[in-house]
Specification:
This protein is α/β, with parallel strands linked by helices. It folds into two domains: 221 residues, Spore Coat Polysaccharide Biosynthesis Protein SpsA, Chain A; 71 residues, no CATH class. It contains twelve helices and eleven strands. Strands 1, 2, 3, 4, 5, 6, 7, 8, 9, 10 and 11 form an eleven-stranded mixed sheet that branches. Strand 2, helix 2 and strand 3 form a beta-alpha-beta unit. The two termini are 26 Å apart.
Length: 347
C-alpha cells in the first residue's frame, strides 16, 4: 500500500494541467511511495493528451452521466490505495513545503482526519514571477469546521464515514467534513499555503453568472435535503446558515404580500419593500460601490435560486453512481517519470 495517493480532478484545463502535475511530482519526491490519479470529466480540449506525458493514472469519465467535481473526487478515491489521500483541483498548483508539514500533523495527531491550508488566488494568465512569495514554515495550525477543494485526508477516516457524495453539485467538502467531525475527528488548517489557485476574480459578475450556469449553487439545498431529519441538519444550518437568510427574507416578503392582498391592507408588504430598499442602499453606502452592491444583490438571488432548486432535487445514494469511465493510462505506485501508454476501457 503506498503512503500517499493524489487525486487530481480536471475539466477542460489543458492550460494548467502540466503545471499541476509537475508540482505534485516535484513535491512528492520524498514520499516513500505514492500514486497520482487524474480524473477528467469528459474534457473537450487536450487536457488528457497533455497529462498522458506523465507516469500517472488517468481516468476519463464518460459524458453520459452526472459530472461534477464531487463525482471526480468520488471516482478518484475509489481507485486509490494510499494511507493518505490528497485532493487537488485542476486549476491549482501545489505549493512547496506544505505537504511535509501536513504529514507531520497527521503523524503526531491521530485525532486529525484532514489537513488543509490557504489558497493563493492568481489569474489564469499569471506567470511564475507573479507568484507571491511563500511565508516561512511556522508549524502553526488551527481547527476549522470545513475545508475547500485542496486537502489531505486520512484514508481510514474516509473508509469509516464514507467519501465525497458524487451527486452534490457543490458543497461536497463542507458536507464531508460535517460527517468527519460528527465521527469525532478534527479538520486542521495549516497557516501556510497549500496551493496556488488560478481562477477569474471571485468578485466579478461574469464569474458569478458562469458558476450559476454550471449549477454550482445547488449544493446547499442538496445538503439540506440529504440530511433532512438527521442529527446533522441543524449543525449544517448553524454553520452554513447564511445561505438560508435570503430564503427567510423572501419567505417574509411572500407572506407579507399574501397577508396584504387578503386583507387589502398593503402596509406590511410596503414595509417589507422599504426594508429591502434601505438594506440595499445601506449596502451600497457601506461598500462605496454601486457595482459591489449590484453583485451582492445578484449573488443573494442566485443563492436563493440554487438552494431552492437543489433542495427539490431527489436525493440519490452515492452507491448508485454509475461509474462509467475509460482508463486512458495506468501507472504503478512510485513508478519512474517515463510516460506510459496502456489503453484499456472499463465497461
Amino acid at each position: 500500500m503506498p503512503e500517499l495517493s493524489v487525486v487530481l480532478i480536471s475539466k477542460n484545463q489543458a492550460w494548467n494541467v502540466k503545471r499541476l502535475i509537475e508540482s505534485v511530482l516535484r513535491e512528492t519526491t520524498r514520499v516513500s511511495s505514492r500514486e497520482v490519479i487524474l480524473v477528467d470529466s469528459a474534457s473537450t480540449d487536450d487536457t488528457v493528451a497533455q497529462a498522458s506525458a506523465y507516469a500517472i493514472t488517468i481516468l476519463r469519465l464518460r459524458s453520459d452521466q452526472h459530472l461534477s467535481p464531487a463525482a471526480g473526487r468520488y471516482v478518484g478515491y475509489q481507485h486509490t490505495t494510499g494511507n493518505f489521500v490528497l485532493f487537488l483541483d485542476g486549476d491549482m498548483e501545489l505549493c512547496s513545503g506544505w505537504l511535509e508539514q501536513a504529514f507531520h500533523i497527521l503523524a503526531t495527531s491521530p485525532e486529525v482526519a484532514v489537513v488543509t491550508g490557504q489558497t493563493l488566488d492568481l489569474l489564469p494568465t499569471a506567470q511564475a514571477y507573479e507568484k507571491p512569495p511563500l511565508p516561512p514554515e511556522t508549524g502553526a495550525a488551527s481547527t476549522i469546521p470545513a475545508c475547500a477543494g485542496a486537502a489531505l485526508y486520512r484514508r481510514s477516516v474516509l473508509a469509516e464515514v464514507g467519501p465525497f457524495n458524487p451527486y452534490l453539485r457543490s458543497e461536497e467538502e463542507p458536507e464531508l467534513c460535517l460527517r468527519i467531525r460528527h465521527a469525532g475527528y478534527r479538520i486542521v488548517d495549516l497557516h501556510y499555503p497549500i496551493a496556488y489557485h488560478y481562477s477569474n476574480p471571485e468578485g466579478a459578475l461574469s464569474t458569478l453568472i458562469a458558476r450559476w450556469r454550471r449549477n454550482l449553487y445547488l449544493g446547499d439545498g442538496q445538503v439540506l435535503r440529504y440530511h433532512l431529519g438527521s442529527t446533522l441538519l441543524w449543525t449544517y444550518i448553524k454553520e452554513r446558515g447564511y445561505v438560508c437568510l435570503p430564503l427567510v427574507g423572501l419567505a417574509v416578503g411572500l407572506g407579507s404580500f399574501l397577508w396584504s392582498y387578503w386583507h387589502r391592507q398593503w402596509i406590511w408588504f410596503g414595509l417589507w419593500l422599504l426594508l429591502c430598499a434601505v438594506t440595499i442602499v445601506g449596502d451600497a453606502l457601506r461598500k462605496r460601490s454601486l457595482y459591489r452592491m449590484l453583485f451582492s444583490v445578484v449573488h443573494r438571488l442566485i443563492i436563493v435560486d440554487g438552494t431552492l432548486r437543489g433542495f427539490f432535487l431527489q436525493p440519490v445514494s452515492p452507491t448508485q453512481y454509475p461509474n462509467r469511465f475509460d482508463v486512458i493510462q495506468r501507472a504503478s505506485p512510485s513508478q519512474p517519470s517515463s510516460a506510459l501508454h496502456e489503453r484499456t476501457v472499463w465497461m
